[in-house]
TrEMBL record:
Protein name (record): Pyridoxamine 5'-phosphate oxidase family protein
Species annotation: Fusibacter ferrireducens
InterPro entries: Split_barrel_FMN-bd (IPR012349)
Gene3D superfamilies (alphabetical): Electron Transport, Fmn-binding Protein, Chain A
Length: 163
């Protein structure tokens, strides 16, 4: 098993298998800071993970979605798992759109305890955010082993990753 395969297996075990994950999601604000520089924004979201993508049910007019529409580059971190990654955010559209049926069912199952209370599927702005991971670092046992993962090329990065 390659280092990449080993790292992906650990990411899958940590976040996959239908788990409801709390992750931090970082975006870039639509307005710059007072000195004219881009301003990062971070928040915690519930996410479902599968094959290099985190999925989040959200509102299409939320700040995060408006920010992603202007700049789809995002960052995520596993709140308790020492995993940090960069990715591309994509609005998959209304949760009830036919093309979202399969992932919607997975999200409803994963988030079953609170899904209906938190989401109004009749609102066409109730959408699915897909966060396609591009590169990341999984830190096992506080620096015992690092996996620098290139999700695009499906390999490890020799020059380090995301810290």
């Amino acid at each position: 098993m390659t280092m990449y395969e080993e790292g992906i297996k650990l990411v899958d075990e940590t976040f996959g298998n239908g788990k409801d994950n709390i992750i931090s999601l970082g975006t870039i604000a639509r307005e710059n800071s007072s000195d004219g520089k881009p301003r990062p924004v971070v928040r915690s979201v519930d996410a479902y993970y599968e094959e290099g993508v985190f999925y989040v049910v959200t509102h299409g007019k939320s700040n995060k979605m408006l920010q992603i529409s202007e700049n789809p580059e995002v960052s995520v971190s596993g709140c308790m798992e020492m995993f940090t990654a960069s990715g591309i955010g994509e609005n998959l559209g209304w949760v009830l759109s036919p093309q979202n049926a399969e992932i919607r069912n997975k999200l409803r199952t994963s988030f079953a305890e609170w899904y209906d209370m938190a989401n109004n599927e009749q609102d066409e702005n109730c959408c699915i955010l897909a966060i396609h991971l591009t590169k990341g670092t999984l830190n096992v046992n506080h620096w015992e082993k690092l996996y620098h993962l290139d999700f695009i090329n499906k390999t490890t990065m020799t020059n380090g990753g995301i810290f």
